[in-house]
């Protein structure tokens, strides 16, 4: 009974509020609030994978948009499986206006289904002016630009505990071999060099992608991502061999291979930044900082620092990235406001809103680096923007999920097998090719 | 099932209607037929909602899945039996079939057996109800929660997994821990590792020498509190009949220091066992002092090897890898037992309560002991209940999904997979091939059907 009354009350309030809003909207020009608000009275629904603090921070961006234009916004968190949720919403006639798509593969799938509206001229112009071409390419399907990359991740950062490196007397290394050498010195000091999260297959794919991008170069990387190059290619075997140098060295990995296979991603951060350190360095994206800070109370920049993933052999240092692209759905109810929202997201102003609160990197090169809240984020952002067109999107996120995104199958599982026994890169490459061929269906 | 129904209804019919009373008039017969028809219509109306529900929720999905299994991933192209052939060419599916077979054979057998034993024993305890309640309680825990609990309990790290914590502490009580599990020597700096994990000097040493045995890989914090710098001891000369040396940590904090030499800041490693070996025979043993020094007195002249036995470096016992590829399925079955034992016990206990006491009494009077009563009377009389419990569990085990999905870590997911998880993985969990997934579903259905038919037969048999 009590509950019913509260719902009634809530709906009354909602009704009153919406009435109020319409009233305001109707009297727009008269009520001289804050200049002209061209979109007042419209509501856009935004869907994305974010939840928790990311959702809270994105809400600030949405609020800023509302402030500016008067359009109301509504954010829905889809959970991990964006494509399924959005697909069923479209079928149910309840499509959101804007979706923040976390994978290139999903964006392509949406475009091929014909669900997406290409970006408006204004948005396209901002993308041309503010973004490196590579981001434009990752947002385009068959020559039309659909996606605007608003938030990016930097997945070429090796995080370390400065204490551990000081104790061993080593500096942040500049090449992969130097990194292994530094790792050996760290392990001589009694602390394992790396903590590898082998229980989570995706961290291993990220390791591989960094090595491959640096060693084989961006062109080969693109070809392999599109499965135009086979996984049996010598370049893959070479990259696996390079990675195997690290994986097979028991002294470099905390707990040896068995220990690594038993460590999940949060556990791997804990091994470096937790109360009882067991390793000096952990490789993963910029989000390691978030875990180290929120869960283990480390001060980023003092107790936890990073160096860019070093170059392998003669290659350039890799910058592997990921990101969420905003797309506008054709079936949305207020397409005009939705496009205006994307135009807004393309401006440095929108990125600055989130950059100030942290946990955010923008691929937008016009964003003033001073907007970022701390030095480390600023550095990662700078490295991402400076890398320009040599940035590559996470390869496993470009692959079909059966190959690049399934627990216990495909690339995840095969790289775990490789971590368990790194002695035969050729056989691993062959197994990867077999799984890839099946998943790409070609 | 329907066929037998009809037969059952028809069989008694002809007696009163046709054969029974030959003198019945035409009108009478008409009336009866109408009444019968009306009864049938009424019955149909009553059954209709159930039929509709069954049709919509069971029959239609089953038929749809069967149909879907003949189409490819997109659902547009008819591929005939390709999904079925592909299914049996996929090693993951074969593993799933194998694991499901293990489950079906082991889990229900163990559960029925355990349930029977517990039910019989519980009857004899004073606090039977409390005991039953306790055993039945895991049934109230959702599979998801139980999975998470057991995932933690089975964790390989003894600091997290309670099972390994127990195993490791028991092991350490009997075997003890080594003092420097992580220590090791650098390659090519005077020490060679032997197959048994011990280190020996590569070159022979003789009395009158002072040797420095440098090791690395020990954290400064992990050194015993009494450890002292090794430099003074390393500089001391040995008398002619004595072999001296230091075991030291060849690593200077913050870098620097010369490898292979005792630097001023470098600490000795106290408590390390050292042996002097000549011609393969141990002629002296010592333990290092606080500064890492050791000496062997009054040795015969000649060439010796100084050895650090492997017991110094034995890695800590890591417990059993419950969730490794070999043990993961038995481990998950263990979790399943924890949940379902109470169920088996309560059902069998109910059957036990309904047993005719006179048979038991008579046996006792005739001088049978408890084991004979259990073996010759209780079990045979309980057989119908045991079969029902067993078959119900078989059906239940076939669809086990949550426990397997949650408990098995990523790297061994494939080693633990069963048909139900495989079906989900292939259809939704990344594979997105609902054609192949449907084929797996059909396979699962085919495997469950015999058990279901058997169970339904039994129920009807017991109703009659």
Automatic annotation (TrEMBL), chain A:
It comes from the Bacteria. Residues 1-23 form the signal peptide. This is Sugar ABC transporter substrate-binding protein. InterPro entries: Bact_solute-bd_prot1, SBP. Belongs to the bacterial solute-binding protein 1 family. Keywords: Signal, Transport. SUPFAM superfamilies: Periplasmic binding protein-like II. The keyword Transferase does not apply. Pfam families: SBP_bac_1.
UniProtKB/TrEMBL annotation, chain B:
SUPFAM superfamilies: Cna protein B-type domain, MalF N-terminal region-like, MetI-like. One of its GO terms (biological process) is transmembrane transport. The keyword Protease does not apply. It is found in: Cell membrane. Its main location: membrane. Gene3D superfamilies: Immunoglobulins (2.60.40.10), MetI-like (1.10.3720.10). The keyword Transferase does not apply. It is a multi-pass membrane protein. Keywords: Cell membrane, Membrane, Transmembrane, Transmembrane helix, Transport. The chain crosses the membrane at residues 41-63, 101-121, 133-154, 335-356, 377-395, 435-456. It holds the Pfam family CarboxypepD_reg. Residues 1-13 have a biased composition (Basic and acidic residues). Residues 1-32 are annotated as: Disordered. InterPro entries: Ig-like_fold, MetI-like, MetI-like_sf, UgpAE/MalFG_permease. One of its GO terms (cellular component) is plasma membrane. Residues 97-455 form the ABC transmembrane type-1 domain. Belongs to the binding-protein-dependent transport system permease family. This is ABC transporter permease. It comes from Streptomyces dioscori. The lineage of its organism: Bacteria, Bacillati, Actinomycetota, Actinomycetes, Kitasatosporales.
